Amino acid sequence: MGIEGATDWREAAASALSWWQEAGVDTVVDEAPRDWTARENATPAKAGPAKQAPLVEEEVPLPATLEAFIDWRFGGDAPESAWGEPVVHVTGNPASPLMIVTDMPESGDCDAGALLTGDAGRLFDRMLAAIGHDRGSVYLVSLCIARPVTGQVPREIEEKLAELARHHVALAAPKRVLLLGQTVSRAILGADAGTGRGRLQPVNYQGGQSEAIATYHPRFLITKPAAKADAWKDLQLLIGGQNQ
């Protein structure tokens, strides 16, 4: 007989078990996979068909009146409410034929409690005066009601903010809308200010239409004074035929 036939399997098995015990192996391993990270007192889940999460979240209808929308927009359900930053409300006359949309509050707007303060605000006031308006005769709103810590509108919520801004325009139903900067232009018109500038463009919504023109933000004009000539052309186009 060979070596295999001379082997005492009982003695070999006992030796192996003794070695495993000394090594700390004291648990029989199942053939089925086991989650060794699960808590010991966890109740095993019963086998059954896996439940799938809904693919699309249920959409909550936005308020259908301007007053109700403003209350909701500056309440705890607004996308920016989770930031913990102060919000800056709309200003001016909601019934004005001219609605102006900025991108976000300036760094000092929260302290002042109004949109477009500081150097950008002073230039904005001069722009309004040049077309025969002041802050009391326009409706000034912001795409983002709180100032992001980065100083830029977060791209991950830009689509939602755009939806809210278009709804805001529809409820206010102004004759014309002035869009300040590329972010606002992209939100309302779906295009950058560079491609949308120089012409009035329709903003369609259920029950009506407004005309919008995109121009440079006062913040940009402070750093690029040469663009003021083009901005003046935009303002002239904005008020052209306004009383027709």
UniProtKB/TrEMBL annotation:
SMART domains for the chain: UDG, UreE_C
GO biological process: DNA repair
Entry GO MF terms: 4 iron, 4 sulfur cluster binding; deaminated base DNA N-glycosylase activity; metal ion binding
Keywords from the named record: 4Fe-4S, DNA damage, DNA repair, Hydrolase, Iron, Iron-sulfur, Metal-binding
Uracil-DNA glycosylase-like domain location: 89-236
Top-level division of the source organism's lineage: Bacteria
UniProt-recorded name of the protein: Uracil-DNA glycosylase
Keyword Iron listed: yes
Protein's organism: Sphingomonas tagetis
